[in-house]
Structure formats: structure tokens, C-alpha cells
# Entry
Amino acid sequence: MIDAGKKAGSEEEEFKMEVKLLSQDKAKVKVVVKGSTAAELNAYRRTIVNKVLAMAIDTVEIVQNSSALYDEMLAHRLGLVVLKTDAESYFARAECKCKGVGCARCTLDLTLDVQGPGIVYAEQIKSKDPAVVPVYGKTPIAKLLEGQHIKLTAQAILAPGKEHIKFSPGLMYYQGFPQIKIGAGVKNADAIAEICPTGVFESKDKKLKVKNTEACVLCMACVDASKGEVEVKGSDTDFIVTIEPWGQLSPIQMVEGLVDALHKDLDALGEEIKKIK
Ligand SMILES: [Zn+2]
# Structure
């Protein structure tokens, strides 16, 4: 249970946001958030996509490229390589002591030197920092024929998704928590249980029952199939929230980054309001 403090505009009324883990695997984390609003969650979603910092290759100096790819295409593909991000040890360039010039605190050097023939994979990129390496080693970068050669140096930096989407650490999305009502006049229980693509219902002795509310994606297939006897609505206050990282950060690190970014934004807002006074 997270006590989220007092709601704006109400001195007395305290609101509590409740967060419960629904499922967790390598690819994503799903939680139920109770006592929120779509506006609030959308602010979190936008902040995760645009403002949470992650590392990516930003500049490339090509020493040799005799592959079939233009230098620009090669640089673009390198920029999209997902790098494990160590946000604790690096600073965004704008906040670094070097004032954006580039130093070891804000810039990581990487090299790539591969002779053909063969596919060049992300795992062949050599990083100076063992904590920041390609997450998906088998990401193909280029194909080299006999005698072809790619040699380059690259610099990775820590930046937010609003500068380029390659820095974005992943997605957050949400839906209203499903509220399902089964009317007394349901005649085709078997067919409705069958038509639901996520297996929300079960049919026992021709009676329709909800067996897994959280699986509902609000597709309304059951509403159509039951001619309105089944009612489905997404809640306005309770939500199923999914956090899906690309790999630079873990879901927890994404949420920590979200909190940091929100603090910064609120501090900046506070400063602006002071100026008006
Ligand atoms: Zn620096």
C-alpha cells in the first residue's frame, strides 16, 4: 500500500493508491493500481517514454566501412542497439561537470572491428565498461562478404526518450480494471466462454461464470455474443498497468527513473510558480 498523500484541492480527504502485483516475467510486469485516474497514469506513461534516462550509441566515427551499407545506415543501426544501462554511474551530458563536452562520467566509448565474411552481431561491439553492453547479442548489424571490413569507434550517452526514441527504456500502458456483470438471460454460455479470446469465462452446466477477471482485455466479444446480457466496463479508478522494458533497465529501475523525473519536473514547476509570486 502506498500512501500517496493528500489530493490537490482537498485539505481533509486523504487518498490511498493501492498497488498489487499481478504477474511478472522476463518481458513485462503487470500490476493492479487502485485509487488512481487515467490522467495520472497517463502522466506516468508519458514520463517513462519521454523522460526516464537510458543509454544508447549517439555518435559514430567510421574508420572503414566496405560493407554494402551506407555509413549513415550503419550508424543508425548501431544507435538502435539496446544497451544495458547503468544509470547510477553516468550523468546526462547536460548535468555533467564537463558541461556537455563529453567525459568519462557522461560518455562511454565502444569499438567495432570485424572482417568478412559473416554477419556482424551486436555482441561483437567492444565496450570499455563491462556494465554497459548490448542486451541482445544476436542483433544483426550488417552482413560482410569476403574481404569486406567494418572498423569504427562509437560513443554512448545517457539521455531521455524525448531526444530520440532510442533512449526510451520501454512502454507503460494501462486499461480500466474489468467490471463484468452476467445477466440472468444468458442462453449460449458455451459459445460465450468459447468466443472470449483470453479465457475469462467458464461454462458449467450451461451456466456462465467468470473465472479470470484480470485476463479481460475489454474486447467486448462476450457482450456482442450475448446480445448485451453480459455487461463489461473498464473502471475509472482501478487499472491494470503493464510495464514492458526494452532491456536497458529493469521494470523497477524504470519506476525509479519515473519517480526521479517527476521530482525534477515538480521542482521546476515550483521554481516557476515562485517567480510569478
Ligand atoms: Zn561529462
Notes: The first strand starts at residue 2 and ends at 6.
